[in-house]
Amino acid sequence: MSNYELEEDKLKSHLIELERKHKELDTELEVKYNNMTVTDEVRKMKTMKLYLKDEIHRINARLIQLGLEWNEIMKVVY
Fold first, then answer.
1. Residues 6-29: pLDDT tens digits?
2. What is the 3-state secondary structure (H, E, C) of 11-43?
3. Cβ–Cβ < 8 Å for 64, 73
4. Which of 9, 11, 27, 38 is the most buried (most CB within 10 A)?
């Protein structure tokens, strides 16, 4: 297996995990916002969600350089 394939596989699995965490945070935030209380915990969760989204975009950009886009990966997963 070449280094190219190793890097691509690592990026794919990391991207999938980031997407899972992002969706999980999104669900938690919806529940907390429905309670109408914006606490420090909610602010931290929103910050983490933004961080995950940035990381997803960074990895997707790298995968595009490698010739594989996020949409192609998600088709395989779902």
1. 888 888 899 999 999 999 999 988
2. HHHHHHHHHHHHHHHHHHHHHHHHCCCCCHHHH
3. no
4. 11
